[in-house]
């Protein structure tokens, strides 16, 4: 994959992140997002499902999970400066890149009007199978189809025009957990915020005490691959620029 060539952050006003489950964005991009919001960029989240199939507590009433996980994601978002969250309410474990899902993502993109779109890779990463959950890939595929061509095509989903949502061109697509990363962001200064965001998903962590070290190891590997100085931490992406 060619080297990533994103626009300078100074040229970006708004970013939208679309992921399948609460906590997906925090594992993949929370450090980067914390840096963006500190720089004055407005970041919004779109959660395809409520993560109702997640968790490790057998005695919990499963009917509670959607509300629990929405609340956890809202708390996590606050740790990295994000206040605008959109929940689509699809069923966890059953996400497919359907026309309905693509339309619903296009609707959110046209509302937010971002210059940068972040999502999960639609391609399976055989070296990181947990990151290639089928819901992740389906959400990534639907978001990629929304990115091009649907969001910018006024004749795609004409019902959205009647809702006052005009076509919009998003210039960049950033993919989390892609098999071929071409851009790394140094998150050394925002790592603590990332950890707080991840640990906000209390229902998902049977061993929270060891989680910070695991995250540090992952992000340390990314920094080494990027060639950053020893002791630095990084998140990696595949960045695609439209045009």
Automatic annotation (TrEMBL):
One Gene Ontology term of the molecular function aspect: hydrolase activity, acting on carbon-nitrogen (but not peptide) bonds, in linear amides
UniProt entry keywords in alphabetical sequence: Zinc
Example GO biological process: glycoside metabolic process
Domain of life: Bacteria
Alphabetized Pfam families for the sequence: PIG-L (PF02585)
InterPro entries: GlcNAc_PI_deacetylase-related, LmbE-like_dom_sf
The protein, known as: PIG-L family deacetylase
The organism of origin for this protein: Kribbella qitaiheensis
């Amino acid at each position: 994959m060619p080297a990533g060539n994103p626009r300078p952050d100074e040229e970006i006003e708004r970013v939208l992140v679309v992921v399948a489950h609460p906590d997906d964005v925090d594992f993949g991009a929370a450090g980067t997002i914390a840096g963006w919001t500190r720089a004055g960029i407005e970041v919004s989240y779109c959660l395809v499902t409520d993560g109702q199939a997640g968790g490790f507590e057998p005695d919990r009433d499963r009917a509670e999970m959607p509300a629990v996980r929405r609340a956890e994601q809202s708390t996590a978002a606050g740790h990295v400066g994000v206040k605008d969250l959109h929940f689509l309410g699809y069923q966890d474990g059953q996400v497919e890149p359907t026309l309905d899902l693509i339309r619903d993502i296009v609707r959110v993109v046209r509302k937010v009007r971002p210059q940068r779109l972040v999502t999960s890779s639609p391609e399976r990463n055989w070296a990181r199978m947990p990151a290639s959950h089928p819901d992740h890939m389906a959400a990534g595929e639907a978001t990629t189809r929304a990115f091009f061509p649907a969001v910018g095509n006024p004749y795609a989903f004409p019902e959205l025009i009647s809702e006052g949502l005009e076509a919009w061109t998003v210039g960049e697509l950033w993919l989390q957990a892609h098999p071929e990363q071409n851009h790394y962001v140094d998150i050394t200064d925002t790592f603590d915020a990332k950890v707080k965001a991840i640990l906000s998903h209390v229902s998902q962590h049977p061993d929270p005490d060891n989680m910070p070290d695991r995250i540090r190891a992952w992000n340390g590997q990314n920094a080494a691959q990027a060639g950053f100085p020893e002791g630095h931490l990084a998140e990696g992406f595949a960045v695609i620029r439209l045009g």
